[in-house]
Design goal:
Layout: E1 19-21, E2 26-28, E3 31-33, E4 37-39, E5 42-44, E6 47-49, E7 52-55, E8 60-67, E9 69-72, E10 75-88, E11 93-105, E12 110-117, H1 123-130
Parallel strand pairs: 1-4, 2-5, 3-6, 4-7, 5-8, 6-8, 7-9, 8-10, 9-10, 10-11, 11-12
Length: about 140
Amino acid sequence: MFSDKSKPRDVVDMGGQPNRIGKNTKIKGDIVSEADFRIDGKLDGNVKTSGKVVIGKDGYIHGKVECVNADIEGGFNGELLVSDLLSLKSSAVIEGTVSVSKLAVEPGATFNASCVMGGKNGVSNLKKANEPAKS
């Protein structure tokens, strides 16, 4: 009587399906995606997404990552640009340079990086702060 199973339903696209690099996978190259990304394997390259990047406990990235949010349990070495929240779990090991709007670090995380924190506008302000002064 009240069933609408026969009617087609619209699917709201939230940037596509999340992507995943598995535990025993090694990738060399650059990744560009609109959707969230989870890395449980090894990536030697760059990631650019308008979503969230998660590096699992066994995951490792060596390169540049640009994203809105990031949760890191594994390892990272390179340049990390997070426009909103970077969350480091207790098992995280971070080296390199980090530009972030908000930072949450659990006790036990290793954070050996130079860090620049921006205000409400996140990385857009950080990029301007890192540019050389114009004469």
